[in-house]
Every structure is written in structure tokens, then in C-alpha cells.
Design goal:
The protein is mainly alpha-helical and 132 residues long. Helices cover 39% and strands 3% of the residues. The chain has a two-stranded antiparallel sheet with strand order 1-2. The model is unreliable at 1-8 and 10-30 (pLDDT under 50). It holds the Pfam family Cytochrom_C.
């Protein structure tokens, strides 16, 4: 039996969907990656924000001139620490969450909520993780 196949425009979406699933060996570009220049800008912004939010009234923070607070632990070599507040694994995303709402991660902590936005917290975490 010899069949002839006619072109049907209604099958085009199915054809294109199928082509999208064919492995090509070409990796999709990860648009979430940042460049070193973007990282540097984020880190510098985080450093400035730590000053603006007056984190230095409690913490001593290297490279933040006004941050010499003696109340809470100093934040030097932050990237070398295993835990936040001795309980929460120290990762950039977790640190940002800690900066936004510390009570949600460790109820009863002395760290106050400072009204930091998620974007500002991400920048502040980037700066702290630059401290080796």
C-alpha cells in the first residue's frame, strides 16, 4: 500500500513542538548567570546597603567603615562559616532570607527584622559572601 501524505497547516504546531524536543547538542544559554562585572556591582551595592541599614550598629563588618558594632558577632570571613546563627546552613539564598526575616528561620533570635527588600538582601548576602 502506497500512501501519500498531504501537507496540513494544522500539524505545524505539532511539528515545531517535536523539533523543540530533539536534542541538538547545543546547550541552552543560562540567562540567570551573572558576569564578573555584574557580580562586582552587586557586591559593592551590598556593601553600601549594609551601611545604609546600619547593620554596623551591632556588627563589625570588614570594609564597611561605619560598621564597628560590638553587640553582635563580627561578620569577617563570612564565606567560611557553616551556619547562620549557629543553626541554619550558610548559603547565599538562606542568608538573604535571614536578612529579610530572621525570626522566620530562628524564632527568638536577637537579630531584628530591618525591613530589607529581597533585592537588597540578595546584594547584602553577595557582599558578605565575598568576605573570605
Amino acid at each position: 500500500m502506497n500512501r501519500k501524505y498531504a501537507f496540513s497547516p494544522t500539524l505545524l504546531p505539532v511539528l515545531f513542538a517535536g523539533l523543540a524536543c530533539v536534542p541538538t547538542g547545543i546547550q541552552a544559554q543560562d540567562n540567570s548567570a551573572t558576569t564578573p562585572k555584574q557580580d562586582h556591582i552587586l557586591i559593592e551595592r551590598g556593601k553600601a546597603l549594609l551601611g545604609q541599614y546600619q547593620c554596623g550598629s551591632c556588627h563589625a563588618i570588614p570594609d564597611v567603615p561605619i560598621a564597628r558594632g560590638p553587640v553582635a558577632q563580627p561578620l569577617d570571613a563570612w564565606s567560611q562559616r557553616s551556619y547562620i546563627a549557629g543553626r541554619v546552613p550558610n548559603r547565599p539564598d538562606t542568608l538573604a532570607r535571614w536578612i529579610i526575616a530572621p525570626q522566620s528561620l530562628v524564632p527568638g533570635t536577637a537579630m531584628p527584622s530591618m525591613g530589607v527588600s529581597p533585592e537588597d538582601a540578595r546584594a547584602m548576602a553577595a557582599f558578605l559572601f565575598s568576605l573570605e
